[in-house]
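As the next step, I selected for study a record pairing a protein sequence with its backbone structure tokens, which the following lines show:
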Amino acid sequence: MNLESIEFKPKSNYSENTARVSDENEILRQGHLACPGCGVMPLMRLLLKVFGHQTILVVPACCYAVIDGPFPYSASGVPVMHCAFETAASSASGIRAALDMRGIQDVQVVAFAGDGGTFDIGLQSLSAAAERNENFLYICYDNEAYMNTGIQRSSATPLGAWTTTTPDETPKSEPKKNLGGIMAAHGIPYFATANLAYPDDLVSKLEKAKNIHGFRMIHYFCPCPTGWKADSRHMVKLSRLAVQTGVFPLYEVVDGKKWTITQQPKQADLKDYFAIQGRFKHLGAESTSRIRQKVEQEWNWLIKMSEL
């Protein structure tokens, strides 16, 4: 990317209040290529509303690299740099350094990657950027598998789930990697989880991330109707159940030390969450019980961290 050629538009005039509700100054354009029901686009729309035109997106190989549109078209409405699968964090670090050398401090750099490029392939550069406390936001939209390349399992794929590489006869036997614990161990200024079904919580966390200097990360629960074998009309319901069952807790961590749960679950039945996803249809009572125990274990760990 040639930074000299970029003409940034004036800063967005969104205030803390209007960013939540106004449809003015819409940045995300029509014509994107997301599947119906994909959880990526509500996130991108709200991200751009909060961060404004003064934003550069760094996108590795992932669903959004396709969703944004084929060259020379782009739905994002801001500069987008495409990079290799494993280099979202290192590429964002380079863009931030180039902007700083030019004295440009009012432009936000956002790495926007899927779980495969975050939990797995990109973890090395992600950890390095966090350790250096690079000044940009890293967003992982987590649809819990390598959806763009054929629905293969990642280390974000939950215990017991079907993927094309963990079929019904041999579903995933390992639990999902604890990304929050990993990133908090780096002591970064801000880490948070977010969810499509709780937009106020999401916007609040985006606003916090925008106003913090240093490395920030948001882990976003991103339902995928195709990879989860679920009806697109159930994506908000799935997202809400993920929080209410404790499968995907909403919390934030400041400076790797202060853990705060931002949404209390309502103890919904895990079976209700599984019932509307084909990727769990093979589960029996014993497997469901094992998964429930793991969810409770993770939730109890989170409670202990928030009480420290």
